[in-house]
Amino acid sequence: MHLYPVQDRTVVVVDIFRATSCMVTAFAHGVESITPFANLDACRSMKAKGYITSGERDGKKVEGFDKGNSPFEYMGPDIAGRKIAFTTTNGTQAIEKAKGASKIVVGSFLNLTAVTRYLLLNEHNILVVCAGWKGKVNQEDTIFAGALVEKLKDYLDPDCDAPVMAQRLYREARTDMVDYLKDSSHVRRLARLGIQKDIGFCLTPDQYPILPVLKDGILTVR
Ligand code: MLT
To answer: Using a 6 Å CB cutoff, which residues line ligand 1?
Structure first.
């Protein structure tokens, strides 16, 4: 059972490091669609249907997959016009949990303004689903939720304190998010894997005016 019901809501799914940042980058570089999978084997089976198989477990590229979970892997001409099957430790699980919502969109700093504009015109209550890490809280997804609250603050009427807390965290972090997050759990995890350059990129606002929307289990851009 959901702590926060998704029915009649517009859900923004966010996994800043790095699933939703990858998805937005992939669409900005011409991917036709992304089908998110919670299950690894279901994702793997899509290779036989001509899909690019993408994703990670515990931050590491899945053996036998075409691509991992770095946004820099989704900037080349090889992905234009292709369909991707994507599975990640937390991001695609969060999308799965959001199913049943009126609308599901993908948010990241890279498309912050595109998400904000969409929410301003949206008629439903909003729920930001922070993917976190294996059911636990992380800072970067909450900071992104706070950035949305900051941008929408004149129009919101929060039904609990979480949005206000997220906004305060964002205000504290915003002048230098890379520095603010340097000791955070996933930054340390990615550093152990030698993945540092993704951090700054994933925290750069408004690189792409792209809004991925989930319909019938498939992400496309509007
Ligand atoms: C996830 O979905 O768990 C993340 O994107 C992990 C990662 O940084 O690869």
So the answer is: 15, 17-19, 56, 59, 69, 88-91, 131
220 falls within a domain: no
Residue 1, pLDDT above cutoff 70 = no
- What is residue 222's predicted lDDT score, i.e. its pLDDT? 64
Which domain does 136 fall in, by range? 9-215
Residue 12 and residue 130 in contact, taking contact as beta carbons nearer than 8 Å: no
- What is the secondary structure of 180-220 as a DSSP string? HTTTSHHHHHHHHTT--HHHHHHT-S-S----EEEETTEEE
Whichever domain contains 55, its CATH number is 3.90.1560.10
Give the number of domains in the chain.
1
Residue nearest ligand 1's atom 9 by CA: 59
Helix (H) or strand (E) holding 41: helix 40-44
Look at residue 105 and give its three-state secondary structure. strand
With a pLDDT cut of 70, the percent of the chain lying above it is 99
